[in-house]
Design brief:
54% strand; 4-stranded antiparallel sheet; mainly beta; 209 residues
């Protein structure tokens, strides 16, 4: 009941994000393996300082070179997974930092935007416009003004942050305005460009264009 959702190699290790099913609920797991032997070095279950396990997947992660740490993004889920109607508090995005040598949690930040939301893609820009804020998160959230929040209709948002989780800016992108709402899905890829800019790629609704 352990399903990998991402694998990356940094420094002296291979890091694997996965979800583990425990009593029918999925929990985020981070693991570090020796990149020569493949042996497990450490494994940590994503949890709060109160020792409460975080119910929900790890969606992506990146390395912090100067700190030898990982920044990890995902979404916290409460209630029954995948069972509509969605509770307004059922999804809450998070960023956490993990020490690469020990697997210990350094910090945990939660971002409970209104309605269903989740951080999806995470990159460290190799040539950032702002050198102190090289990390970018692309995600999905409910549109403002939608009378029946939460909903499955999405808006794309982009966050720029530093290695400590401090937000430099946040932007929301949409292909429609009230009272017409299309489901925007162009946050399915985040591509860094040489000039410091980014490409958001994907599709929008209603035709999947």
């Amino acid at each position: 009941n352990n399903i990998a959702s991402g694998i990356k190699a940094f420094g002296d290790g291979i890091y694997v994000a996965s979800k583990r099913s425990i009593s029918g609920a999925d929990y985020g797991i981070m693991s570090k393996f020796n990149r020569i032997t493949g042996l497990l070095i450490w494994e940590t279950s994503i949890r709060l300082d109160t020792d409460e396990f975080i119910l929900g997947p790890i969606n992506d992660f990146e390395y912090v070179p100067g700190d030898d740490a990982l920044l990890v993004v995902g979404n916290k889920i409460s209630g029954i997974i995948g069972a509509p109607p969605f509770s307004i508090n059922q999804y809450a995005s998070y960023v956490l930092k993990i020490d690469c040598q020990t697997g210990n949690l350094i910090f945990y930040n939660q971002y409970p935007f209104k309605g269903r939301n989740f951080f999806f893609f995470f990159i460290r820009h190799p040539n950032p416009v702002n050198g102190s804020h090289p990390y970018y998160i692309a995600g999905f959230k409910n549109p403002e003004g939608f009378v029946s929040n939460p909903t499955t209709i999405d808006r794309i948002f982009l966050l720029n942050m530093d290695k400590n989780g401090d937000i430099n800016f946040g932007r929301e992108y949409n292909s429609s305005v009230a009272p017409t709402f299309f489901d925007d899905e162009f946050g399915r890829g985040l591509v860094p460009l040489d000039n410091g800019n980014l490409l958001l790629v994907g599709n929008d609704g209603p035709n999947g264009d």
